[in-house]
Specification:
Length: about 425
Amino acid sequence: MANEVRKQVHPDRPDSRVTPFQKGMGFLERALEPREIVELGWNLLHEDLSLPTAVLYRDKLLHNLNWMQQFITAYGVKLAPHGKTTMAPKLLDMQLQGGAWGITLATAQQTLVAYEHGVRRVLMANQLVGKQNMATIARLLKDPDFEYFCLVDSVQQVEQLGAYFQAEDQRLQVLIELGPEGGRTGVRNSDQLQSTLDALERWRGPLVLSGIEIYEGVLDDEEAIRGFLERAVSVTRELMQDGRFDRDRILLSGAGSAWYDVVADVFSRTGLGDSVDVVLRPGCYLTHDVGVYREAQEKILQRNPIARCMKENLQPALQLWAYVQSVPEKEKAIVALGKRDAAFDAGLPTPTLHYRPGNVAPVSAPTSWSLTKMMDQHAYLHIDEGDDIRVGDMIGFDISHPCLTFDKWRWLPIVDAQYSVVDVVQTFF
């Protein structure tokens, strides 16, 4: 099925055209398809794009894609990258073509977007709740080539899903989610687990117990995370021995973008046998960042021997570019970039590149430059007195937390090493 999943992805739909009203793009007289955009020959440094803009670097995307796939292969596990990070079908396709087992998503709407762009295996790492959300999934499941999983963690949810999908005469694959005390969703203890199992037994026709899922990112201590992972392994082993799973290949899934190495280490040594597929779900690796995920990756390199032996680290592949619009004080410049353009929940964007239109190429921004404040459309850039910075200069910013930057853009150009636009990707938030 993995090969079928990759072959069936169609990231460009006939209605996916770039309109003249999209921010971060160049001048258009009419709506154009992505391939027509490329034919225009736009280049970031030639000021063919209206700033601010968010750009993706092709070479870095491919590097990160290959890096993670090599890491996953080294552990003998499977990869279902979390699509909520980008919600860009063209990037999901890139990940599937690169060897991903499937795509992880968080909602029924996200699942619909992925399906309509050709994704045929989705692990929805969340609970499916509500009539319209169930109806969305039920419609998709009418396609026999579509494989879907969601999470359950309570009797009430199991009862609701069982009743709905029995009425639809359909079977829904579910994973039991385990959760730690003080965490997010997931069964907390053996009593909750048993009551959920009993409910699943009553609805064994429409609901197919297919595996165990955890999200370790709600914990921040490695010892606690390893204990949580061992609990998931133990529960999986017990349920296998009791014959509670109804799928030939049982799923054991975990891993966000900060602790995927620990999950790979524990889950790859379970000894559960070939009938168990370990599926990891990091999402931010494709574009990476210079904030929270760079910090997490540095810790991974310190503690994980496989990551440490790989030639190069992940690289930030998403940048924001904006103009200097005012230099009102000796140590302050105002940049036309704001909260409507970039994530600010995990640190402000970092000025990395400085380009003056007409020069040959960007240069590294002084390390003393930093953003001190962002408003809706303005950013306060601290500079040193005497720095060579002018109105109209272009500043390239690296970001922290790609998820909450992507959702502020409907189209993002992909550029090559010379900053020429070689593709554009559409997002669906």
